[in-house]
UniProtKB/TrEMBL annotation:
UniProt cross-references to CDD domains, sorted A to Z: LuxR_C_like, REC_DesR-like
Pfam families assigned: GerE, Response_reg
Name assigned to this protein: DNA-binding response regulator
Domain (HTH luxR-type): residue spans on this chain: 134-199
Keywords: DNA-binding, Phosphoprotein
Transmembrane segment boundaries: none
Boundaries of every Response regulatory domain copy: 3-119
Amino acid sequence: MIRIVIAEDQALVLGAIASLLALEPDLEIVGRAADGPQALELVRGLQPDILLSDIEMPGLTGIEVAARLKDCGVPTRVLIVTTFGRAGYLRRAIDAGVCGYLLKDSPADRLADAIRRVAAGGRVIDPELASVAAFAPADPLSDRERAVLRLAQDGRSNKEIGRAMALSPGTVRNYLSEAAAKLGAANRIEASRIARENGWL
């Protein structure tokens, strides 16, 4: 049996994926997570063969969870299933050690096959997205710049961002200025938009 933890913050989607995979005789759902920290905790505790994860989740993104699992040496292999067909997300996912990347409009049998291939040590990448990613620009942002931009796009002030990240408002301002300069943006709003459109947030 291939043991799977599913991480997805939309309850209906999580339930639908779990129900579809439960029909497969060789796949077993051993855990469900509604956010990134919960996914990390479940994988560390249960040591499943596969973490099937969305990208955008509260707390930690699927890519951030994959990176932390990689850094900790956890053998669970990560397969991303997302609506985001952006080359920047794929490049970041691969850098984080993700072994599979599929879009949510993939047929159920393709998802099940991808899980089996990833569990067997292979890599599965949506072919159309892989060809686009090969020519996409590299992500210029540091992890700190990305985190600060993500909070800024929610409308938080420098002081609020600083409180959330244990940084001074001046340091937050510097990170935002550096991010905007790297992206050729006039301000934090434009920087967030550019980063989001390229899959860098």
